[in-house]
Amino acid sequence: MTSTPQTALPPTPRRELRRARSGAMLGGVSAGLADYTGVDTVLWRVLFVALTLAGGAGIVLYAALWVLTPPVPLAPGEQPRRVDEAVERLSGRLGGTPR
Protein backbone atom coordinates (compact mmCIF):
# COMPACT_ATOMS: atom_id res chain seq x y z
CA MET A 1 0.00 0.00 0.00
CA THR A 2 1.25 3.41 -0.83
CA SER A 3 0.28 6.41 1.13
CA THR A 4 0.65 10.03 0.33
CA PRO A 5 2.28 12.19 2.95
CA GLN A 6 -0.18 14.46 4.65
CA THR A 7 0.70 18.08 4.74
CA ALA A 8 -0.17 20.06 7.78
CA LEU A 9 -2.53 22.92 7.13
CA PRO A 10 -1.46 26.27 8.49
CA PRO A 11 -3.52 27.28 11.49
CA THR A 12 -6.36 29.58 10.60
CA PRO A 13 -6.42 32.80 12.56
CA ARG A 14 -9.15 32.84 15.15
CA ARG A 15 -11.76 35.45 14.39
CA GLU A 16 -12.93 37.58 17.26
CA LEU A 17 -16.21 39.38 17.63
CA ARG A 18 -15.39 43.08 17.91
CA ARG A 19 -17.37 46.27 17.52
CA ALA A 20 -16.48 47.97 14.26
CA ARG A 21 -15.35 51.57 14.15
CA SER A 22 -15.84 51.98 10.41
CA GLY A 23 -19.35 51.58 9.08
CA ALA A 24 -20.82 52.10 12.54
CA MET A 25 -24.08 53.99 12.81
CA LEU A 26 -24.39 53.91 16.57
CA GLY A 27 -22.08 51.60 18.47
CA GLY A 28 -20.66 49.41 15.73
CA VAL A 29 -22.38 46.26 16.99
CA SER A 30 -24.16 45.42 13.72
CA ALA A 31 -21.06 46.12 11.62
CA GLY A 32 -18.97 43.99 13.98
CA LEU A 33 -21.47 41.13 13.81
CA ALA A 34 -21.47 41.43 10.01
CA ASP A 35 -17.67 41.20 9.90
CA TYR A 36 -17.71 38.21 12.24
CA THR A 37 -20.52 36.21 10.61
CA GLY A 38 -20.40 37.32 6.98
CA VAL A 39 -24.07 38.34 7.12
CA ASP A 40 -24.81 41.81 5.73
CA THR A 41 -24.89 44.71 8.20
CA VAL A 42 -28.36 45.75 7.06
CA LEU A 43 -29.78 42.36 8.02
CA TRP A 44 -28.33 42.67 11.53
CA ARG A 45 -29.86 46.14 11.86
CA VAL A 46 -33.23 44.87 10.63
CA LEU A 47 -33.03 42.04 13.19
CA PHE A 48 -32.38 44.49 16.04
CA VAL A 49 -35.27 46.72 14.90
CA ALA A 50 -37.59 43.71 14.60
CA LEU A 51 -36.66 42.51 18.09
CA THR A 52 -37.25 46.02 19.41
CA LEU A 53 -40.69 46.21 17.83
CA ALA A 54 -41.52 42.73 19.12
CA GLY A 55 -41.18 43.65 22.76
CA GLY A 56 -38.03 45.69 23.24
CA ALA A 57 -35.50 42.87 23.34
CA GLY A 58 -33.54 44.43 20.47
CA ILE A 59 -32.60 47.47 22.55
CA VAL A 60 -31.50 45.33 25.49
CA LEU A 61 -29.51 42.94 23.31
CA TYR A 62 -27.85 45.75 21.36
CA ALA A 63 -26.92 47.62 24.55
CA ALA A 64 -25.49 44.46 26.13
CA LEU A 65 -23.41 43.68 23.05
CA TRP A 66 -22.26 47.29 22.86
CA VAL A 67 -20.92 47.16 26.42
CA LEU A 68 -19.61 43.59 26.43
CA THR A 69 -18.01 43.42 22.97
CA PRO A 70 -14.53 44.96 22.70
CA PRO A 71 -13.96 47.47 19.89
CA VAL A 72 -11.56 47.14 17.01
CA PRO A 73 -8.27 48.77 18.04
CA LEU A 74 -7.84 52.40 17.04
CA ALA A 75 -5.72 53.20 14.02
CA PRO A 76 -2.60 55.29 14.74
CA GLY A 77 -3.63 58.89 15.29
CA GLU A 78 -7.34 58.07 15.46
CA GLN A 79 -9.30 59.48 18.40
CA PRO A 80 -12.18 57.53 19.98
CA ARG A 81 -15.63 59.06 19.97
CA ARG A 82 -16.89 60.34 23.32
CA VAL A 83 -19.65 57.75 23.43
CA ASP A 84 -17.06 55.00 22.86
CA GLU A 85 -14.98 56.32 25.76
CA ALA A 86 -18.06 56.21 28.02
CA VAL A 87 -18.88 52.65 26.94
CA GLU A 88 -15.27 51.60 27.57
CA ARG A 89 -15.41 53.02 31.11
CA LEU A 90 -18.69 51.20 31.75
CA SER A 91 -17.29 48.00 30.28
CA GLY A 92 -14.21 48.27 32.52
CA ARG A 93 -16.38 48.70 35.60
CA LEU A 94 -18.55 45.71 34.72
CA GLY A 95 -15.63 43.48 33.78
CA GLY A 96 -13.37 44.62 36.56
CA THR A 97 -10.51 45.54 34.26
CA PRO A 98 -10.33 48.30 31.68
CA ARG A 99 -9.57 47.24 28.12
TrEMBL record:
Entry keyword set: Cell membrane, Membrane, Transmembrane, Transmembrane helix
InterPro entries named in the record: Phageshock_PspC_N, PspC
Domain Phage shock protein PspC N-terminal positions: 15-71
Record flagged with keyword Hydrolase: no
UniProt key word Nucleotidyltransferase: no
Taxonomic placement: Bacteria, Bacillati, Actinomycetota, Actinomycetes, Geodermatophilales
Highest taxon of source: Bacteria
Protein name, entry field: Phage shock protein C (PspC) family protein
Topology of this chain in the membrane: Single-pass membrane protein
Transmembrane region(s): 42-68
